Structures are given as C-alpha cells and as structure tokens.
Amino acid sequence: MIDLHCHLLPGVDDGAETLAESLEMARTAVADGTVQLACTPHIYPGLYENDGPSIMAAVDRLQKALDEADINLRLLTGADVQLAPDMVEGLKTGRIPTLAGTRYFLFEPPHHVAPPRMPDMIFRLVAEGYVPVITHPERLTWIEDHYDTVCDAFDGGAWIQLTAGSVTGYFGRRAQYWSERMLDEGRVHLIASDGHNMRRRRPVLSAARDAVAMRLGEAAALDMVRGRPEGILLDRSPEDMPALAGVQQRAERASGWRRWFGR
C-alpha cells in the first residue's frame, strides 16, 4: 500500500514529536503493509511555518535514519496545506510542495468554518494544472450544513481523501457516516492514514482497506490505497486513473443493464 498523508516528520507540527517516535511509526506502517509513505506536515500560516525546501530536507534526514535502522519504507515529500489566498503562487514557487513533485497536493479546508469561496479556489487551481486532494472532509464540523461545498469541489475537479480511522469508526459514528455516504456516492479517490503518533493516530491502512472491500469490492479498495496513489506518483492525469466506484453507481449501472436487456 501507499500512504499519501502522514505526519511522520519529527518536531515540525502536531505529528511525531521525536525521531524515536517517527521510527516507531514507520515500523508500524511497514508491518501494516505500507511500502511508500508521504511525509505531509501542516503548512498553516501563523502556526506551522513549514515550506517546500525545509520539508524536503527533513524528509532526506528521516529517510537516512530509516535506512540506518533497516526500516524498508520509501519516503515521499508533500504537505497538508491550509486554504490561503496565495496558494497558487506558493505551489508555483515551490514554497508549497506537491505530492512527490507531481500535479497533486493535499488541500486542508478549515475545520470549523465552511470557506465561502472554496469552489472558486478549486477552479483556479485546476485551471493552473493542479489537482487538489481535499483531506478528511468527513471530519469537518460543517459538513452537515455545507455538504454541497464538498460536492461542488468534487465536481470541479478536486479529489477526495478519507482518513482510514473514519472509515473504520475510530473517529466516531458521525465521521463514519459521512465516509460511508461518500463511498456509496462514488466520491472517494483515496484513503490515507493521516497518522500523527503512536498513541491514538497510528499510520495504519489495512483495516480501512478491508472495510471498503466489504462495501465496494476488493478492486475498489485497492484502487484507493495502491492504484490511484501509484498513478499520482507517476503524475498521471485524472482521466487516466482507475474509475471511481460506489454502491449507488453500481446499482445505477445494474439498473441500466436490466432496462437494456429487459430483465
């Protein structure tokens, strides 16, 4: 599996605090079946002032530490980027890193307030050639009242990434409900761990992969943790990626076939 959202770098945000914790998290990810992992610290002006060059240097240092500890995990560069007016400029200059240097990057909406102009920003980003991957929309406090904002972003070309713990119910019934709804509607592109530590938010994917397989089938689950992540690392266009699957989409296709063949 490939985990494209994890706060593994030590001491740069609210993720791993020490190198020892980073190494323990990495061992956990490998034991769970992850072979590649994107280090995606927060970029949050005024709180976490990370940038592309500093993240890249930190990833290089951590990769060397993993290699010395004989932990077979390939690290990738990225960031969990808060919505900001200068986002496009930051991406163009490299201040905001994309996932492994591709057109895809993690886009974190405000957690407690629905951003009124998010669809406009999505439109601008897509027009500039980027693919924003919206992180953990199922956990946003405003999703009940503004689900149409998430749907508009999806329709505008943004990708959707669920947190593994939301799919399995670890973050509560509410986050699980929205995860299952988006899965059923065929709106989910990726599942990632969003791992932060070894206490409550471990970097594991397999339980969520299995839950999606039970709901949508094994192929759809593997697309979310391997097929599309591999496509991202190859910088494939969204049109060349595996098609989305959902319970409702499958039902609609089956209904169409029944109408066509009179069954």
From TrEMBL:
UniProt keyword Hydrolase present = yes
Q: Which reaction does it catalyse?
A: O-phospho-L-tyrosyl-[protein] + H2O = L-tyrosyl-[protein] + phosphate
Q: What is this protein called?
A: protein-tyrosine-phosphatase
The EC code for this enzyme is: 3.1.3.48
Q: Which family would the database say this protein is a member of?
A: Belongs to the metallo-dependent hydrolases superfamily. CpsB/CapC family.
Alphabetized InterPro entries for the sequence: Caps_polysacc_synth_CpsB/CapC, Pol/histidinol_Pase-like
What is the organism field in this record? Brevundimonas bullata
Q: Which UniProt keywords apply?
A: Hydrolase
* SUPFAM superfamilies given in the database record: PHP domain-like
Record's Pfam families?
Answer: CpsB_CapC
A GO MF annotation of the entry reads: manganese ion binding
